[in-house]
Amino acid sequence: MVLFTFTLILALLSVIAPSSVDALWPAPKSLSTGSSALRLSSGFNIQLNIKNAPSDLKDAVKRSSQLLKNDKLEMLAVGRGSKNAAAVKSAKQLKTLTLLLNGNAQAKSISDEAVADLTTRKEAYALKVPADGSGATLTADS
Q1: Which DSSP letter does residue 80 get?
Q2: What H or E segment, with its residue span, contains residue 68?
Q3: Beta partners for residue 128, in sequence order
Q4: pLDDT tens across 87-124, in order?
Q5: Taking Cα atoms as reference points, which of 35, 67, 68, 59 lies closest to residue 107?
Q6: For residue 75, what pLDDT is reported?
Q7: Is the pLDDT of residue 80 over 90?
Q8: CA–CA separation, 65 vs 130, rounded Å?
Q9: For the packed helices 5-15 and 55-70, what is the interaxial angle rounded to 10 degrees?
Q10: What's the Cα-to-Cα distance from 35 to each of 20, 60, 64, 100, 102, rounded to whole Å?
């Protein structure tokens, strides 16, 4: 999770729009999508619910939050204009994304993950974005 926090947040933006989800990385083994539009609220908040989270992970979440606050929160898709304007305007708003670890997993620092052997990395994750905007969760093993 620590290696691609910002990438997944960007991917979240692509998932909530009525468009292709080719931007998800790492690429999921399976994907289930809905058909309703959902947009990030202007007060969108990323909550780091990880015990003893490394400082560089906290910093990455803070940077990602700042980038989103300064972004215009437009769709990450070709043809993002008038084609979907009505759906986006009337869409429910997502207020939070909570980052969690499975079971007793512990987050390593981003710098430790970056130099870890590729065969030992655990990049599996579950991203759940409810259509009602009640709060998204990203759960991972690392």
Answers
A1: -
A2: helix 55-70
A3: 137
A4: 777 889 999 999 999 988 888 888 888 888 988 888 78
A5: 59
A6: 61
A7: no
A8: 20
A9: 40
A10: 11, 31, 27, 26, 28
Give the separation between CA 40 and CA 45, rounded to whole angstroms.
9
- Helical H segments across 19-74, by residue range: 55-70
Separation between Cα atoms, residue 13 and residue 77, nearest integer Å: 10
**Residue 58, amino acid:** K
Q: Let me know how long the chain is.
A: 142
Amino acid, single-letter form, for residue 2 = V
Answer left, alpha or beta for residue 89, where phi above 0 means left and psi between -120 and 50 means alpha: alpha
The pLDDT value recorded for residue 70 is 83
**Tokens (6 digits) for 118:** 């590729």
CA distance 37 to 16: 6
Rounded (to 5) percent helix, strand, coil in the chain: 35, 20, 45
